[in-house]
């Protein structure tokens, strides 16, 4: 992190101390419908509403010492809060059932996932779980049946050669396409996203997209309906403006890299939780976003200047 980011990080820590802290732990994650039943995320998958997620913890003897169940919301996300700071290192989460809104995706489930500690400060802990998979009774018909299909026998083409029109002169070239979504982990701070030479990396949203459209009603009530993402990226000096700036940055990073710390829906959900909570929640969420956007010390920004 550069000097400005470190200074902001220290300032938010001071805010957290002033507003007081309470010992608690939170576990968050998302459930997706594995429509192809291949155990992997694909373009056909979607977040599952109403999926039941069970988290279990085992002691040294392998006996279950703690269990908690939660249901996903319409974003496919779930959150479990624990008072105090329990030891969750040996815990895992899995899809244990389905309910209303799951659209029939819950007849089976993928493997359980271990909890990963993302953040610990002032007796507060944040754990995340890699995406869990719920599966329907049968895979959808559009799914590829095999990664190595058997080739069909060649057939003799008796059709006449196709008629080709002569090239038409004067057609302007197509506009440059944005870079392919990075298969590698990438995390870029807000300064990169406000640099003109990197504007081609904006995906799904653009600088003029309204904050209310990107983040929903809670953001509209706090920031108004006219605030754009571009304006939000230049906010500072206030915990809520800092949260917005880092939340927008996290959303852009999540659209740009499959391996970013947050899924786009997770960014929106954490923003809404913070805006509906206390100032302390705003500060902690902003710290989480800052850490993710800085790469957590081991991920760099993979931007190259746009052509």
UniProtKB/TrEMBL annotation:
The keyword Signal applies. Residues 150-176 have a biased composition (Pro residues). Residues 1-23 form the signal peptide. Residues 137-176 are annotated as: Disordered. It holds the Pfam family Pollen_Ole_e_1. The keyword Signal applies. Keywords: Signal. This is Uncharacterized protein. It comes from Acacia crassicarpa (northern wattle).
């Amino acid at each position: 992190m550069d000097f400005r980011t470190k200074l902001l990080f220290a300032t938010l820590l001071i805010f957290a101390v002033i507003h007081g802290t309470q010992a608690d732990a939170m576990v968050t994650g998302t459930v997706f419908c594995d429509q192809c039943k291949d155990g992997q995320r694909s373009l056909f998958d979607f977040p599952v509403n109403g999926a039941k997620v069970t988290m279990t913890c085992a002691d040294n003897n392998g006996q279950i010492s703690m269990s908690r169940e939660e249901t996903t919301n319409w974003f496919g996300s779930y959150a479990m809060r624990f008072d105090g700071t329990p030891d969750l290192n040996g815990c895992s989460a899995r899809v244990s059932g389905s309910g209303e809104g799951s659209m029939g995706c819950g007849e089976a489930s993928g493997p359980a996932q271990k909890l990963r500690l993302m953040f610990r400060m002032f007796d507060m802990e944040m754990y995340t779980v890699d995406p869990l998979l719920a599966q329907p009774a049968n895979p959808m018909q559009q799914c590829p049946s095999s990664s190595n299909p058997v080739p069909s026998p060649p057939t003799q083409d008796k059709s006449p050669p196709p008629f080709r029109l002569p090239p038409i002169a004067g057609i302007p070239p197509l506009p440059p396409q944005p870079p392919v979504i990075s298969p590698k982990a990438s995390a870029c701070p807000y300064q990169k996203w406000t640099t003109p030479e990197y504007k081609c990396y904006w995906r799904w949203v653009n600088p003029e997209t309204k904050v209310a459209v990107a983040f929903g009603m809670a953001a509209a009530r706090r920031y108004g309906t006219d605030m754009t993402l571009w304006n939000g990226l230049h906010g500072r000096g206030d915990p809520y403006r800092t949260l917005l700036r880092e939340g927008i940055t996290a959303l852009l990073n999540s659209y740009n890299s499959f391996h970013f710390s947050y899924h786009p829906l997770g960014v929106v959900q954490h923003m809404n939780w913070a805006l509906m909570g206390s100032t302390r929640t705003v500060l902690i969420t902003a710290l989480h976003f800052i850490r993710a956007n800085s790469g957590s010390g081991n991920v760099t920004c993979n931007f190259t200047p746009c052509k």
